[in-house]
């Protein structure tokens, strides 16, 4: 049937893309992580690439043990990594440019809609085929260029609700194929957002997926409570305010269940992070319209530490959603409670647009036709309307906004 044919074609395209990248590795030797028969922990160089980071962490995409070590280092040293939603290579480039300028790691994040946009809005998206293919293609692009920026890069995907699990499953298929060829997953981590489901169902589904993901050393990010506002097709604008604040007992239920998954393929504990709601709202709002309560995270760490009794004061790795427009004080207090990543989307979208807008305003007289400008009626304008010019202007302003965000997150000169 047509659906079966489409599935076969998608699978074939993924295999070809992964095989191409594997072939590129074989000829260029540019991806040091391609070691199918040796674990990353066993191959960590005694000579550290970065003076401050653990020896397992190298430039380029980090997964498995290197990812675990990087996130633990962030928690121990009280900085958070920006997780930036991207929609194409220009926004990907801006992310890695900002990381290179500030001397910190970066998380490049694909949403379902962003993946579809990369594949092309006219591409067949039945059974999320375009969403899957675009996300995979974007990940392969990042892997191809990331080392050139000299920084650690985490490859992540954002909110996946229950209705979008086809997209999630497609990416796990791609990870498993990549793992077979390269000894590590294509992505570093994925997020499941089942916060609208009953708590027990949310935890059980996450548990089942973490068991599968741990076999290829992937990290799972799960969400508790609901992040308000709207972002990329997820609209929680009218949610009950009480659901914006997670309780410590709920986080303990998650922690207890997910730690029972046991070991991943590399021998480390299965990896997960928790996006616990503490009043977070997607988007940016006038001061006073959003009430963040990072104390919830501090209380949760204390509650679970007392349950465990092992001396670890920050057993949970938290992530911070809805970070755009938040005060530096709230951000840094949340980091002290074990937040190791903060999502950024609204502010970087505006920054990219603002760069394009400013470019058009500055060069408006040269953008009204192919020929003719203030320098002469016969003067060509190609160098002004070349799309690379306006896109580069957007990259520069987005990168600058991210540099500012990394300062707020204490994520400067940490390598």
Summary?
It is built from 14 helices and 13 strands.
- The 3D shape can be described as globular
- How is the biggest beta sheet arranged? 9 strands, parallel
List the total number of helices. 14
Stretches with pLDDT under 50, minimum 5 residues: 19-46
Distance between the termini: 52 Å
- Helix vs. strand class: alpha/beta
Mean pLDDT: 87
State which percent range the strand residues make up: 5-15%
- H/E element order: HHEHEHEHHEHEHEEEHEHEHEHEEHH
Number of strands: 13
- Helical proportion? 40-55%
What integer value in Å does the Rg equal? Answer: 22 Å
Question: Care to describe what's here?
Answer:
There is one protein chain. Strands 1, 2, 3, 4, 5, 6, 9, 10 and 11 form a nine-stranded parallel β-sheet that branches. Residues 19-46 have low confidence and may be disordered. The relative contact order is 0.13. This protein is 47% helix and 14% strand. With 415 residues, it is α/β, with parallel strands linked by helices.
Salient structural properties:
13 strands; 415 residues; single chain; nine-stranded parallel beta sheet; alpha/beta
């Amino acid at each position: 049937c047509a659906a079966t044919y489409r599935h076969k074609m998608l699978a074939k395209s993924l295999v070809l893309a992964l095989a191409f990248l594997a072939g590129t590795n074989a000829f260029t030797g540019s991806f040091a992580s391609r070691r199918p028969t040796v674990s990353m922990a066993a191959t960590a160089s005694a000579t550290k690439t970065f003076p401050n980071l653990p020896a397992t962490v190298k430039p380029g995409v980090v997964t498995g043990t290197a990812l675990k070590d990087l996130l633990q280092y962030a928690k121990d040293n009280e900085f958070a990594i920006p997780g930036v939603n991207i929609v194409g290579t220009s926004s990907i480039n801006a992310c890695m440019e900002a990381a290179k300028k500030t001397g910190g790691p970066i998380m490049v994040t694909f949403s379902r809609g962003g993946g579809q946009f990369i594949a092309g809005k006219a591409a067949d998206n039945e059974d999320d085929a375009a969403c899957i293919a675009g996300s995979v293609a974007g990940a392969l692009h990042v892997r191809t260029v990331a080392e050139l920026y000299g920084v650690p890069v985490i490859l992540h995907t954002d909110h996946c609700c229950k209705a979008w699990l086809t997209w999630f499953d497609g990416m796990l298929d791609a990870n498993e194929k990549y793992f077979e060829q390269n000894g590590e997953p294509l992505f570093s981590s994925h997020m499941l957002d089942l916060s609208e489901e009953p708590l027990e169902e949310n935890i059980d589904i996450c548990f089942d997926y973490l068991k599968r993901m741990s076999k290829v050393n992937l990290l799972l990010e799960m969400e508790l409570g609901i992040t308000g506002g709207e972002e990329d097709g997820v609209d929680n604008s009218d949610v009950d305010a009480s659901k914006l604040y997670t309780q410590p007992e709920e986080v303990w239920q998650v922690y207890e269940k997910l730690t029972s998954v046991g070991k991943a393929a590399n021998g480390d504990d299965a990896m997960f992070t928790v996006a616990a709601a503490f009043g977070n709202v997607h988007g940016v709002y006038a001061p006073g319209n959003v009430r963040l309560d990072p104390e919830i995270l501090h209380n949760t760490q204390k509650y679970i530490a007392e349950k465990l009794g092992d001396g670890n004061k920050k057993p949970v790795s938290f992530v911070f959603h809805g970070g755009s427009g938040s005060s530096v004080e709230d951000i840094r207090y949340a980091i002290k409670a074990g937040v190791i990543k903060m999502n950024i989307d609204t502010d970087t979208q505006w920054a990219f647009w603002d760069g394009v807008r400013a470019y058009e305003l500055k060069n408006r007289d040269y953008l009204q036709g192919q020929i003719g400008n203030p320098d002469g009626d016969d003067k060509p304008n190609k160098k002004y309307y070349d799309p690379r010019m306006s896109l580069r202007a957007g990259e520069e302003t987005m990168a600058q906004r991210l540099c500012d965000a990394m300062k707020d997150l204490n994520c400067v000169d940490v390598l």
